[in-house]
Amino acid sequence: MNKNTYKKISQNKGQIAILIDPENSFKEDSLITLLNKIEKAKVDFIFIGGSTVSKKEFETSINIISKHTKLPIVIFPGSHNQISKKADALLYLSLLSGRNPDYLIGHHVQSASELINMDIEIIPTGYILIDGGNLSTVAYVSQTTPIPRDQISIIKNTAIAGVLQGKKLLYFDAGSGAMKSIPPEIIKELLFLETPMIVGGGVKSIEEIENLKSSGVNVIVIGNHIEENHDFLNEIKEYKEKQTI
């Protein structure tokens, strides 16, 4: 089992992760086809998880994924039952932008005894939901309100609080299907924290990926756009190949 996921996330800017939501990728044939395209695109990570995923859906998908990829598999859990020893790492998410105790610590307590004995890298992560122009599933399910995208001081102080609590990563999310991605200006404001940052939600173009990379983002997560347009993986492949020239 790879125990260097945090190190890999921390080392470089502009890495790309594809988020697979098991609720949308339950059929084995379609999931294997998607994995083959992801491998060819030369992305850096596969994230797996979702806000409304059942335990059966999660286990079925991660079993398939672990058999058909050599990429690092990182769990992006939507609840306490989305854990597996077949992943390389788990983002131990605390939803700092909300005040729902279940997503601050409740789900963590429910999974703690199982996780402590599991051969998997656990990465404490401050999870900050930012308005992406529509009501996201995670906001609805967690019953929390995203931080307005223009409230830079609130976002900044929330991130600082997470780092002071000991979070090793900061994850800024506009939510699945977001109309707008996270503004690069937010990332630039937080570089002084010297904490690796992940951004997800609403990323639909190579230009956005490049802008986020330039701002200092370590990993850019793409989910919904890949589900709707597998051909975007070809654009990612071309982009990644240019980076190695």
Give an account of the 3D structure:
The chain has a single domain, classed as TIM Barrel, CATH 3.20.20. It has helices at residues 5-11, 28-40, 55-68, 101-115, 137-142, 152-165, 184-189, 206-215, 224-228, 232-243; strands at residues 15-20, 45-48, 73-75, 89-95, 121-129, 169-173, 197-200, 219-222. It has an eight-stranded parallel β-barrel, surrounded by five helices. It has ten helices and eight strands. 42% of the residues lie in helices and 17% in strands. With 245 residues, the chain is an alpha/beta fold.
Q: Count of helical segments? A: 10
Low-confidence stretches are none
CATH topology: TIM Barrel
The major pleated sheet works out as: 8 strands, parallel, barrel
Count the domains.
1
Strand order across the largest sheet:
1-2-3-4-5-6-7-8
The CATH homologous superfamily is called: FMN-linked oxidoreductases
